[in-house]
Amino acid sequence: MNNPTRPHDGTAALSASPFPAGARVAVIGAGVVGSAIALRLAAEGYRISLIDPRPPGSECSFGNAGQIMPYAVAPIALPGALGRLPGWLADPLAPFAIRWSYLPQLAPWLARFIAASVPERVEPISLALAALCAQALPSLDSLLTMAGADDLLVRRGLLYLFESEAAWQNASSEIELMRRHGVRFEALEPDSLRQVEPALGPGVTRSLLMPDNGHLLDPQALVARLAAAMVTRGGEIVMDEVHDVILGPDGPRAVLTDQGERPCDAVVLAAGARARGLAARLGADVPLDTERGYHVMLAAPGIDLRMPFVSGDGGLHATPMAHGLRLAGTVELGGLEAPPNPARADRLLEVGRRLLPGLCEAGATRWMGFRPSMPDSLPVIGLSPTVPRTALAFGHGHLGMTLSAVTAHLVADLVTGRPPMVDPTPYGPGRFA
Hints:
Blueprint: E1 24-28, H1 32-43, E2 47-51, H2 60-63, E3 67-68, H3 81-90, E4 96-98, H4 103-116, H5 119-134, H6 136-147, E5 153-154, E6 158-162, H7 165-170, H8 172-180, E7 186-187, H9 190-196, E8 206-210, E9 214-216, H10 219-232, E10 236-238, E11 242-248, E12 251-257, E13 260-263, E14 266-269, H11 276-281, E15 289-298, E16 309-311, E17 316-321, E18 324-333, H12 342-355, E19 365-373, E20 380-383, E21 390-394, H13 400-416
Parallel strand pairs: 1-2, 1-14, 2-10, 4-18, 6-16, 14-21
Antiparallel strand pairs: 3-9, 5-9, 6-8, 7-8, 11-12, 12-13, 15-18, 15-19, 16-17, 17-18, 20-21
């Protein structure tokens, strides 16, 4: 296998044609991944139309935890997943839960998820995640500079907290993968933890400090600036809903929206949780499904949290932001149609109160959004195996913000025909064929 952190000739990935110089490129999806790609390709000289019926960053990117997590080299599906399945079904408020009503539709995805959890699959998946994560912050730094958004990224590290020995033991596989793939972390004694983060209560028994992580003060503002910087480079934001891509002998010739046809020479599909139908149309029938994520936003939390943290017990990601404290996280597999379960947001608040005794809940707001989730925890990044001048970039799960910039860099390499910065093979859209 090629070293995933070094450029290579990319022969397999370039079976479909790169984009012609100066081509009109329709980027479908204006979340953080699509907006990052749009800016990167505009800087390469392509004429970009960023197409989404909603303003840039107003869906999943609006409500995410805002944490940049290069430590996240472990897939969600870890050994023992099959044994945990009954618990995921039994507790609708668990950090990882499956809605019974959605189980029939989810079954094929779930079978692939369980298959990805065996040890011989976990190691190469983790290696592929580590290759992207290693480039996450350097790529983001470059993109922030292009967008004039350096002020939105804070580098103070992240705490990984455990209140119970059971949660610590459950995280052992993840921690070992981190160790093997070169993630820097330091175990803190309780007294040292209190010095690092005085706002925490006494219930934390074990903790890890991840010094190389960062967080965003306003995730939606970042996406808006990426899109605006794309416009200054000659691109346009088109608030239409895409229904189809019209194909010609050389690939896409137009995007069909609710407002009619929009001519193009190439397409990048970055439509997140709603990408599956168009992906199949564009040569990649992939098992994409949805992680429903929740958050609670506290405008006046009453505490001064110095750095973000993750709860190993409750699945909570707490992040200090420009407009308050965000409590986000957990995974609910329930599709795109079911209504939100507000009790899941309330559970996040419950975990937050437990870890942060001084927390003030007045004026709390709640939100739910859809993360695009692949059963092997790897995003789909690559050129279409069958449709020329077509690239796909979606399925990042809970790592969309973390991997947005490196994804944009990799897509730019592929569509220009350059040797890619990371071996694209593990993320290829044809891997489930």
